[in-house]
Amino acid sequence: MPLRGFLTCRLCGGKLTGSASKGKLQRYFYYHCQPGCKERFRADQANEEIVKELQKISVYKEALQLYRIILEKELKKSNKEVGVGNRKIIDEINKHKDRISTAETLMLDNQMELWEYKIIKTKYEDKIRGLETEMQSAITRPADYKEYLDFGFNILLQVDGVYATGSPFLKRQVLCSMYAENLIFDKNKYRTPVYHETLSLILNTVKGLSENGKGQNPQKSVLSSQVAPRVEDSNQFLQDMRELATIPDNT
Fold this sequence. Notes:
By secondary structure, the chain is mainly alpha-helical. Helix content is 61%, strand content 8%. The chain has a domain at 78-137. Strand 2 and strand 3 form a beta hairpin. Helix 1 runs antiparallel to helix 5, helix 2 packs antiparallel against helix 4 (145-157) and helix 2 crosses helix 7 (197-212). The protein is elongated, with a radius of gyration of 27 Å.
């Protein structure tokens, strides 16, 4: 029962569990709430509907592929800008170290008082620590981010099939990667799910691309101008892609 632990009761808000009920010829599986709550429905219905929910992600194939290309371009550009910024910081740090070294030479040659040297040394060491902190806090991304983008988007392009044919463990991995909150099954269908922030950003963008492209054959450059990927949050994005990349092959 792959959805056990991923469903919230529509009646009381509790977490649903699952169990089997023995019939005359076979056992039937149900998801149900805790004792005292009447919520109960057949597991096969909920299991079929979750595949349909995942199809809503993979249906935007062309837009997903375009978004992946645009995002890689933006990440590459942002990485380059971060690299240039870090080099400037390193140059500034080296200048401050040179100033400390110069002051030390003057002090040793009796051209500067010890107390003056200490003031200069403390001043520039503080500046160096500040610059090092600034450099460490700058957005950096692994050199192999393209690998995670490829793997993550390949999963998104076929996520319904990956889930439907996967092992129970793989199914749980997919659900954890997709949804930020438990699902609510209401009247034989799911209420609007809450996706993880990164996936929500991707879906909102690709839906817009898909709708704008209906009935026409827009150029990639035109569509690209309509997309503004939030690369400032791309460290989290790459972490999400890395988690998707850890999903094992279905064996």
